[in-house]
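Annex B. Sample input.
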Amino acid sequence: MILNHLWGLYAHPKQEWKSIESSHEGLSASLIHIMIIALIPAICGYFSSAHIGWSIGAGDPIRLTQASALKISAAMYVALIAGVFALAYLANWMAKTFGADPDFSQALELAAYTATPLFMVGFAALYPELWFVMMAGLAGVSYSVYLLYSGVPILMNIPEERGFIYASSLVTCGLVLLVAIMASSVILWSYGFGPAYMG
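Annex B, continued. Sample output.
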């Protein structure tokens, strides 16, 4: 079912949201989906950092030691999953102020499937040119936002007029979560958890 939803979210998103709404596979299906899809950026990021090297500008590609790349990729994997759960919690909490009463599994489905295009951008790391990854990331964020706006009225049962404001609030919360994850990374780096570069 996971791959069916994955294809449907790209091919016919509104119909796929209706399919997700009608089937309500529950917390376990959403969790499995998140855990599989979050592997993409973690594995691709590890491979590109340890074996290919990132091209930032005109200089030589920057590579990390395998141990450092593995540590950072594992932390990224945990942070991505935690971020989706945090977004689901916020979606569930905020829905009540918009007159809806979803259960947490609906909010987790919304967060998990909305984050899917963003996680799929991880494949872009296999061509680790900064400009390319940034362009792919922009496309992934744009499509994730589109999925959020199209999925909220269907999955959360919020009328489209209020759904637009609700989805906009969630986008803002998502951006705050992203900044919080980035800030946490900087703090951890300052305590000795930063990357170790190849000499």
